[in-house]
Specification:
CATH topology of the largest domain in chain A: Rossmann fold
Number of domains of chain A: 2
Number of strands of chain A: 11
CATH class of the largest domain in chain A: Alpha Beta
Strand order of the largest sheet of chain A: 2-1-3-4-5
Order of helices and strands of chain A: EHEHEHEHEHEEEEHHHEE
Helix content of chain A: 40-55%
Largest interface: A-B, 17 and 23 residues
Oligomer: homodimer
Distance between the termini of chain A: 30 Å
Largest sheet of chain A: 5 strands, parallel
Radius of gyration of chain A: 18 Å
Low-confidence stretches of chain A: 118-123
CATH superfamily of the largest domain in chain A: Response regulator
Number of helices of chain A: 8
Chain lengths: 224, 224
DNA sequence: CATTTTAAGCTTTATTTAAAGTTGGTGGGA
DNA sequence: TCCCACCAACTTTAAATAAAGCTTAAAATG
């Protein structure tokens, strides 16, 4: 999961970035509204955390601009004020959620999970396929035979695969969604993580597998 | 934009309605196939989201019925299954798109936008002729008898043929469109791929064939 | 020190070439 | 006019070459 964090207070931005990365998100941090807009135009994000009061361009303007362009990325607004007017304006402009500073990191994390949740039916923080479960709060991969923990990158790769079962995801798309559109890393790194994940799935006796299809990418399929 | 949502799981229906309304669609929700048919007869919709498995009347029957009456409203089918048979039958019955549960709301929204876009040159993700379907995202070639995957070049050749049914395409034109203007490759390579494709079409029991006409090139024709 | 990234050698699969058939139209001789 | 040799257009297969993907270990990062 790739998040954009737009927050001009350096100390808070730094702290949030650390917390988010520890929770297995990839984070791009920007420090004003104009920068936020630039990143949103280029990159593909699963969620945006947007401070309202920022230099150059305020958060609500950023939000209005991207919504006007048809970008439906989930957005959480942050603000020091708790005034009703702001809240209403923010939600009217297309925000998905709203958080008043100061807040507990626990609450922020819960709201990010809620906002980026797949399928919308169930309030589970777990992805499931075959005899394999991926817990999105503990980053544990488990099967009836046991469980093991995944590293940040491993987790994000598998999360993307499990969120789109049977759909092929190209190496380039993994790069963009996990490493970011401006990453310098070699495509090779994706293959390395596919290899690691296969090893772990095999070790757990999974009845699903990561299939490769030339030029189409990778997809999760039931073992036949 | 006015949408009809036919989905019998109440929780999912509720969630989808909320999301769609937040994205500025007007939504009529119905909970079985018969109701869907009733609404479609009276109302004027810009798009329909149709679950396949529903009480009273399944989604594919609803789709067939309205298409038989000449109703061309765009339809996205939803299903829990990802089986080839279903997919082929759904598309054969006149669905515009197909989505397997669970899906990202982002994806549904994107497909609704694509489906309801007027005047654009129908950038559907698949090509169809006779009992054969070509999926442009997975390079899968399928018929009621099964499916097999195509290599990159095979796919491009068949894509060109299926986009221009009944039209003869010369060997030189294949070369230019697929291998590029300045390719060093022999013309022969086109003939080789025609041969490979015929073999695969035969294996799938296709009721279409690649016909050759001397000096005119190749075209897809129904089997007589 | 755990995680991430790079690099290298290896395996598998796709693409291209080459060569050995087929087919069908054309033109010249009986 | 009919028949047949001939040739160019196409077909198919097998083998050679190229590309894509896999795995491991070692180097870099923080």
């Amino acid at each position: 999961m790739r998040l954009l964090l737009a927050e001009d207070e350096r100390a808070l931005s730094k702290a949030l970035t650390t917390i988010l990365e520890r929770n297995h998100y990839s984070v791009d941090a920007v420090y004003d509204g104009q920068e936020a807009l630039d990143y949103l135009e280029c990159g593909q994000y699963d969620g945006v955390i947007l401070d309202i009061m920022m230099p150059k361009l305020d958060g609500i303007s950023v939000l209005k601009t991207i919504r006007a362009k048809g970008n439906l990325v989930p957005v959480i607004l942050l603000t020091a004020k708790s005034e009703v007017d702001d809240k209403v304006e923010g939600l009217d402009s297309g925000a998905n959620d709203y958080l008043t500073k100061p807040f507990q990191t626990k609450e922020l994390l819960a709201r990010i999970r809620a906002m980026t949740r797949v399928g919308t039916t169930q309030a589970t923080a777990r992805l499931q396929m075959g005899n394999i479960t991926l817990d999105q709060t503990t980053f544990e991969l488990s099967s009836p035979n046991g469980s093991m923990s995944l590293t940040n990158k491993e987790f994000q790769m598998l999360e993307l695969l499990m969120s789109n079962p049977h759909q092929y995801i190209t190496t380039e798309r993994f790069m963009e969604k996990i490493w970011g559109y401006d990453s310098q890393a070699e495509l090779n790194v994706v293959w390395v993580y596919i290899s690691y994940l296969r090893k772990k799935l095999t070790a757990l006796g999974a009845n699903i597998q990561i299939k490769a299809k030339r030029n189409a990418g990778y997809a999760l399929e039931e073992l036949t």
